[in-house]
Amino acid sequence: MSILNPSKGVDYYVFLAKENYCVKYKAPSDLGFSHSDKIFHYQDDVLMQTNHIEISKIDISLWNKSGRLEWKVYDKDNDDEDNKIAGKYIDINPGTGNVGSSNIEPTLQENSIVNKDNNYAISYGFYDASSGDFSALTNYDQSYVYVTPCMSNWMGDLVAFNAKYGLCKFSNFALAGSHDAGMYNNSEAMKLMKNKEYTTFLSKSSEDFLTNHGVKLDDDAKQNIKDYIKLFQKLVATGGENIIVNLAMTQKDDISMQLDLGTRFFDIRPGFCSYADSFVLPTKVSQATGINNLYHQHALVPGMSFDQILNEALNWLDKNKKEIIVMNLNFQGFILETMKPTPQFLDDYINNVISELKITISIGSKADLNTSYNDLIKNHKRLIFLNQIGESTDAQKYDSYNNTYKTTNADVIIDALNSMNKNGQKESDYTVLQLQGTANGIISDIVDSSATFSKLTSPLMSTKANFDTKTYPWIHENVHKNFEKDQLIVFLNDFSENALAQQSCWITQKRMDN
Fold it and tell me: Which of 6, 156, 243, 339 could in theory staple to 271 by disulfide, Cβ–Cβ 3.0 to 4.6 A?
């Protein structure tokens, strides 16, 4: 890039697991008189395909300020427009890096595509990068497109392919998991952030949290926290919805779509919005009688209501008789004890939702992991809870997550995965390999991504596909060697998609064959 010929770089990534399909990326070149195309075809020995392009001033016409990047998916192994089944475009200004006209939706609306009749699924995402001058985030825009067969019934399809798989224990399965699964809806969070009482409480809670963790705060530091919260509230009140997305939203598809994409494990953190005695959202309902005021909680930010999550999952199970879901209820990241429901309250809550739906679903636990898939299906035991909520039936997990995960470097995640082994599994009921970093936990990255009103600046999206290109090949090559095949294994990630589900299916098949 030069002053006379400014440019904006874009990294793009393709996962293509469906034969006879292809993906094309297209960008302008030669003052707009031509275009640069990259067509990705199915390769059975290549999991993730990547490329990089620079959109520079000399690539676009003299009368345009932006160059158009677009991708298209074709259901034949050529790019004939008659074969196009999906596509998106975005205009990028090479001078400023700003995005213009686009049919790519804001992060929370980048909903995946599942076509059961034609047997395909498409997930995609885009990250609008800043200059990167003030954080560790990349200064290259990021774009990904993942194309697979439809994964909505992959368990049943696997057993239909080979009946012996139905005799295998459920613990032989490898499951694609949704990290912070209920954080795909920010409507309740937006209500909170516009409430002065809540933001005052948030400021005090931030002070208490830091103090309790050994951080000494002088008067200037306390004032800085208050000033930041006021700025935060002002930005939200003036339309800065992306700030909430960047801070706390880890998914972009609802539970039903995540299930259709093949996700079968859900990290759910149900809690009350009881952040203060005088403030509860949406209404103050007692623990003894209320069933509608539990929300998935990300620290002090609420996502989707727990009853909606359960309703979606149970209704989906009722329509998909050969599939099994695992939910992990936990209170990770809860700052206040008042947010936590009791185990008995959660049991009553779940049973109430099931009874209201009047569907035939039995609840399972860690005791059912050694039951065969066929027997679980026969007995309608298709919703298994592996919880950490302080009850006697809690499950013990072996988890890769550690304090190094606040990173933008995929090698850090690989190091954590390499530290996991069969010996570490011995005292646990199941194993979790976390594949996502938490770039939204780095203060400089939050500030950098919040300094724009672009709707495509989630820090998690900045690392999503780049991490996938490292972690997906790793699990493909190492899980069958490094871990016991008789212990359930989960691959947890942000922005659940079909590529990880396809990996889970392949790895499950390999575990059952050995």
Answer: 339
